[in-house]
Write a structure and sequence with these properties.
single chain; alpha+beta
């Protein structure tokens, strides 16, 4: 077995990215870090390294347990990496899911006239000075 593997190959092999090209693009954008330093796609990883992936707003962290250059079955992935993402980062992920509950589900069609009015009422700014008359009568 190899002692070191390119980070883009390893990310693809352990199924963190669908294609190696996507893993390479994320490295170019600076979204991949190895041992707290930004990694290029050609960066070599070793067993014991910590790999961090920035996916807004969460910073996922993984520990390298084994190395592989070939894509593997999803059942084998836990043998190659350990998820060490902190609980506060996972809480951010949950908050993001909760916040997206106000979004219409895809495929539900256009809003009805009543829905549109409710949306307008919710999004229209309300100014206090429109209701009150501040003119001074002597």
């Amino acid at each position: 077995m190899t002692q070191e593997v390119r980070i883009d190959k390893w990310l693809w092999a352990v199924r963190l990215f669908k294609t190696r090209t996507l893993a390479t693009e994320q490295c170019k954008k600076g979204k991949i870090m190895v041992n707290n330093s930004v990694a290029k796609a050609s960066r070599m990883v070793k067993i014991g390294d910590t790999v961090q992936i920035k996916r807004n707003p969460v910073l996922f962290s993984f520990k390298v347990l084994e190395l592989s250059q070939n894509r593997m079955n999803a059942k084998l992935v836990p043998e190659f990496l350990q998820d060490i993402t902190t609980p506060d980062q996972l809480a951010l992920l949950e908050l993001g899911k909760i916040a997206s509950n106000g979004v219409r589900e895809r495929g539900t069609g256009r809003p009805t006239k009543k829905d549109r009015r409710e949306l307008d009422q919710y999004t229209t700014p309300y100014y206090l000075d429109e209701e009150w008359d501040f003119s001074v009568n002597d």
